[in-house]
Design brief:
The chain is of the alpha/beta class and 278 residues long. It has two domains: 94 residues, Periplasmic binding protein-like II (D-Maltodextrin-Binding Protein, domain 2, 3-Layer(aba) Sandwich); 157 residues, D-Maltodextrin-Binding Protein, domain 2, CATH 3.40.190. Helices cover 37% and strands 25% of the residues. It has ten helices and 13 strands. A hairpin with a 3-residue loop joins β7 and β8. The chain is elongated and about 60 Å long.
Amino acid sequence: MKKYSKIIIAFLFITAMLIATACGSTTDGFKIGVVTGTTFEEKAQEFGKVSEVSLYKDDNLTLQELSTGRIDGVITDRLVGLYAIQEGNFSNIKTAGDLLYNETIAVAVRQDDNSLRQAINQALSDLIADGTYGEISQKFFGTDISQGVEYPVTFPDEEQADDNSLNRVIEKGEISFAMSGGYPPFNYFTTEDELTGFDVEIGQEVAKRLGVKYTSVTTDWSGILEGLRSGRYDGIFGSMAITDERLETVDFTNPYYLSGAQLFVQESSSISGPEDLE
């Protein structure tokens, strides 16, 4: 009898472990997936109940792993996640709770390139006013993400700039914007190896309103600020968030969209928000 009891106990233990693995978690904590090289990895590691942070090359993979139950949650940009859910038809995934933090996204330019920054601000304002922004937004997100949003002004009450930065771009006949090229739906390569995305198309419209050619530069994110400061390109139009640290070395235009870090879970998950990971 004792022999059979041991067998039953062993069977129950193995079954429990298999169920926990299938659900993507164990009693040790939750498994959270993030895209490698993003700030979301650091954010995920802040939660006390997160036992493992799994890294993936893109959000399609993170959400696929979440959809099949191999991980318990995904932390990524809210708009990126919603786009990936729509594209991948992940009907069993939902947002969980409020944003972990807000991000204000703008175009970075070199400090003292004030006339160029002001010209980009005017171009952004014009394409929002004439509906072009809304059309591009509908294409990538299924909605106009500027509706109901009041964008802050980065340099309020400043005078008209008279430096040479705008003339530099106009005389050259082109404006170059840097981005990673690996951040769908904002900037990414298609299967035909063409660079596209929300950032790209908005940047093209800005260039058109400045009367110059649009040129994109894809580069590693870790060195993108140094590339701007060294003059390799005129700006960073690649979903860069305004932070106090970045403001020490570059200036930013007015924002062209707002988003933030969002937790995504399965529809059946017991996780209702970030507070459940604390």
